[in-house]
């Protein structure tokens, strides 16, 4: 499947329409998140789900402890300080080289119309795939009890596609502008309140087929623990604003349980 018109819901989303692009950009700029429900046609999402189910046995599952800032411990702060406070993340992942060449995911990811749409909405000049063979398209699995702990992203934007909802929970929650990283303001009091549960995140409702653009560098976010027997499946479409960028071998081993060197 290579024609984007057979994959994307063109009745609602004309990626080449300048007014539609402008509305999307305004929403993302104002709210820090853009949700395009039913972006992928239902029959195509069903195909992607079947691919995900067939390949789940290939996924690398891991559980990791980390701080909300995704940084090593600061020795000059106590363990319970927001900078060091540890949360848990647990998930499975299959990598780009495990996505079929004829998968609709690859057709969307490689589409120049899609990339030009993203560039306009995100305010980027160009978008490039990762230079390593693992990181461009990832399919994440979250089974019962698995979650993503509160964290800030290192990248300025994230692009995801929901494939399957769990029976219960597995909800994406965020607190917009919880810090100002460009000014070096980590906003420890607010982050502590979020980590302790006294400040609640805003839940983001979405259904399978929804495309989500999210600015998570300064917005603290998490996915609550999944409940039930249905695995949450979410695709991450990862791009760079510069060509030739690859995840380090250490990062690959951490996230994927192997490196491209071993492929």
From TrEMBL:
Question: What keywords sit in the KW lines?
Answer: Iron, Metal-binding, Oxidoreductase
- Report the GO molecular function annotations: metal ion binding; oxidoreductase activity
Q: What's the short name of a Pfam family annotated to this entry?
A: HalD
Originating organism = Neptunomonas qingdaonensis
The record's similarity note reads:
Belongs to the iron/ascorbate-dependent oxidoreductase family.
Q: Gene3D superfamilies attached here?
A: q2cbj1_9rhob like domain
Q: Does the keyword Cytoplasm apply?
A: no
Please give the SUPFAM superfamilies that the UniProt record associates with this protein. Answer: Clavaminate synthase-like
Q: At the top level of its lineage, which domain of life is listed?
A: Bacteria
Q: Mind telling me what this protein is named?
A: Fe2OG dioxygenase domain-containing protein
Fe2OG dioxygenase domain location, by residue? 133-241
């Amino acid at each position: 499947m290579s024609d984007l018109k057979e994959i994307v819901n063109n009745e609602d989303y004309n990626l080449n329409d300048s007014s539609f692009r402008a509305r999307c950009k305004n929403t993302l700029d104002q709210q820090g998140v853009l949700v395009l429900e039913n972006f992928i046609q239902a029959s195509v999402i069903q195909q992607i789900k079947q691919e995900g189910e067939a390949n789940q046995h290939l996924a690398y599952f891991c559980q990791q402890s980390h701080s909300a800032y995704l940084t090593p411990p600061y020795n000059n702060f106590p363990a319970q300080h927001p900078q060091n406070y540890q949360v848990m993340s647990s998930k499975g992942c299959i990598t780009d080289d495990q996505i079929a060449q004829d998968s609709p995911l690859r057709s969307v990811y490689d589409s120049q119309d899609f990339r030009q749409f993203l560039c306009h909405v995100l305010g980027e000049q160009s978008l490039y795939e990762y230079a390593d063979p693992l990181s461009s398209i990832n399919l994440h699995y979250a089974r019962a009890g698995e979650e993503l702990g509160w964290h800030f992203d290192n990248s300025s934007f994230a692009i995801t596609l929901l494939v399957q909802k769990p029976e219960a929970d597995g909800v994406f929650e965020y607190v917009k502008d919880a810090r100002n990283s460009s000014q070096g303001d980590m906003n420890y009091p607010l982050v502590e309140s979020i980590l302790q549960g006294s400040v609640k995140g805003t839940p983001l409702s979405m259904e399978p087929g929804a495309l989500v653009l999210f600015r998570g560098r300064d917005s603290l976010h998490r996915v609550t623990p999944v409940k039930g027997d249905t695995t949450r499946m979410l695709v991450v479409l990862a791009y760079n604003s510069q060509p030739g960028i690859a995840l380090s071998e250490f990062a690959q081993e951490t996230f994927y349980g192997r490196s491209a060197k071993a492929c």
